[in-house]
Specification:
Elements (H helix, E strand, L loop, with lengths): L1 E5 L2 E8 L4 E5 L20 E5 L16 H14 L5 E6 L1 H12 L4 E7 L10 H16 L2 H12 L6 H12 L3 H11 L15 E6 L6 H8 L5 E6 L6 H4 L1 H13 L3
Parallel strand pairs: 3-4, 3-5, 5-6, 6-7, 7-8
Antiparallel strand pairs: 1-2, 2-4
Helix pairs in contact: 1-2, 4-5
């Protein structure tokens, strides 16, 4: 991977291919390696993957972090690379960043694709508040490897996915816990729900039918977006691009081909 200084932060990234710029933003606790099954896009696009602040090989300064901070980092990275506009794809936390980026830097977004994500991270019920608290406590006291083992069993539930589970655990174990917790805390209370109507570019929302959040949650924010459509990938959980790469790549490729 190459590296570049953005506002005092060393960001590690990789560019492959030629054509329109296409940026992939990974999820919480992941890295650019999480897009390994999307490498085929470099045949038709100049594909950019990078490690978000606090993740992978990118620097991990002390928190607090925030979603707008992550979006600003991305804008700085694109500016350093001379990219004026790009197709933006983000999964989970990467979807938060993508949404925020489209709100804050609309002129830099050709199209927006968000995958298994939310438009806000505001607990709306006692149960959701308890869930957030429990997650923070569990993550504080368990090792990153143990957390990876627990998560992998919910993400990749089929016997034939054993190898994917092992790879996931090894990659998860490399996370820096302080940076991970700073990223998680930085999302609590975040929202762009009231700004979704400002996003005028074409938007593709990809949802797994067995994701953490419901299809109804995605349908609710799709209705707020002026130019969006929802695609559901069945028999899939949160890590759809890894679990169902052929279906995911086909849906994304079809969308992008209509908006070159």
């Amino acid at each position: 991977m190459a590296k570049v200084q953005v506002g005092g932060l060393e960001i590690h990234y990789q560019q492959k291919g030629e054509g329109p710029d296409l940026v992939f933003i990974h999820g919480l606790g992941s890295s650019a390696e999480g897009w390994q099954f999307q490498s085929e896009f470099s045949s038709n696009y100049r594909m950019l993957t990078y490690d978000v602040r606090g993740h992978g090989k990118t620097e991990k300064p002390p928190g607090p972090y925030s979603v707008p901070m992550f979006a600003k980092d991305l804008a700085g990275l694109l500016n350093e690379l001379g990219i004026k506009q790009a197709h933006i794809v983000g999964i989970s936390m990467g979807g938060w960043i993508a949404f925020q980026f489209a709100v804050d830097f609309p002129e830099m977004v050709a199209t927006l694709t968000v995958v298994n994500t939310w438009a806000d991270m505001i607990p709306k019920s006692l149960g959701e508040r308890i869930s957030v608290f429990r997650r923070l406590v569990i993550f504080k006291f368990f090792s990153m490897r143990k957390i990876g083992e627990i998560l992998s069993k919910g993400l990749f539930i089929k016997p034939e996915q054993e190898e994917i589970r092992k790879i996931f655990v090894e990659q998860w174990a490399e996370n820096d816990k302080d940076a991970y917790m700073a990223s998680m805390r930085g999302a609590i209370g975040w929202s762009v729900v009231d700004q979704l109507h400002e996003i005028q570019c074409p938007v593709l929302v990809i949802a797994a039918d067995e994701d953490y959040s419901s299809i109804e949650t995605k349908e609710a924010y799709v209705r707020r977006l002026p130019n969006a459509r929802l695609e559901i990938i069945k028999d899939s959980r949160h890590a759809t691009p890894v679990e169902r790469p052929e279906e995911f790549n086909s849906v994304l490729s079809d969308f992008l081909s209509k908006h070159h």
